[in-house]
Amino acid sequence: MTGSDPKTDLHRYLQDAREALLWKIDGLSEYNIRRPMVPTGTNLLGLIKHVASVELGYFGDCFGRPFGERLPWLEDDAEPNADMWATAGEPREEITGLYRRAWAHSDATIGTLPLHAIGHVPWWPESRREVTLHKILVHMIAETDRHAGKADIVRELIDGATGLREGSGNMAPGDRAWWEGYRSRVERAAREAGPGGAREAGPDGAREAGPDVAREAGPDVAREAG
């Protein structure tokens, strides 16, 4: 049986998620990487900016290893959700470069400290603020994968591209006609499932986006509560 090092395994899953998220902007225009595709404004470059900021907090400040660069969108006087989108004056390279520097800073923490090292998350409830590096690694894997999943949907909405990485569609085989037929079957099953199907679906079969969409988004658009 092949041996396994827990820290190495956790770091590998984190790095896979990081790279999947960053890959989602490849080949897109400046407009499309910033383009809000849902009522809550979720966009690809904003997801990268957000996850970079969160990672720096968890692997930096929480373990007494501050990053050292000013992040104005996280300061007390910043507007709400400032970490969730990039202004026209924030180039793609600036955000992706920040994310890569965040990786290096986090990886130094991961490499230096043991999994049982104690840190503190000041924005979590007081009863749960004391954490281990192991817990934060698990948390950031979940955090990054969650946002990478959002990026999957946003990218598909933009140009139909799917997959985990270049050359890996990670989807069932099938041409465009197959996928159109598949989607029609799924839509038909949804409509036949019971009351509300026809009422809630719009002309194209998708549920109409109403004001409740923003209300249901929850605190995810701000710094996570843990």
Structure description:
The protein has 226 residues and is mostly helical. It has a single domain, classed as Up-down Bundle (Four Helix Bundle (Hemerythrin (Met), subunit A)). The protein has 8 helices and 2 strands; from the N terminus they run ααααββαααα. A two-stranded antiparallel sheet has the order 1-2. It is globular and about 55 Å long. The chain starts with 5 loop residues before the first helix and ends in a 10-residue tail after the last helix. The C terminus is likely disordered.
What distinguishing features does this structure have?
Four Helix Bundle (Hemerythrin (Met), subunit A), single chain, globular, disordered C terminus, two-stranded antiparallel sheet, mainly alpha, 3% strand, 226 residues
Which consecutive residue ranges, at least 5 long each, have pLDDT under 50? Answer: 201-226
β content, as a range? Answer: under 5%
**Structural class label:** mainly alpha
Let me know the number of strands: 2
In this structure, how is the largest beta sheet organized? 2 strands, antiparallel
First and last CA, distance: 35 Å
Name of the CATH homologous superfamily:
dinb family like domain
Number of H/I helices: 8
Tell me, what is the CATH class? Mainly Alpha
**Secondary-structure element pattern, one letter each:** HHHHEEHHHH
The neighbouring-strand order within the major sheet is 1-2
Give the radius of gyration.
20 Å
Helix fraction?
Answer: 40-55%
Query: What number is the mean pLDDT?
Result: 86
Shape: globular
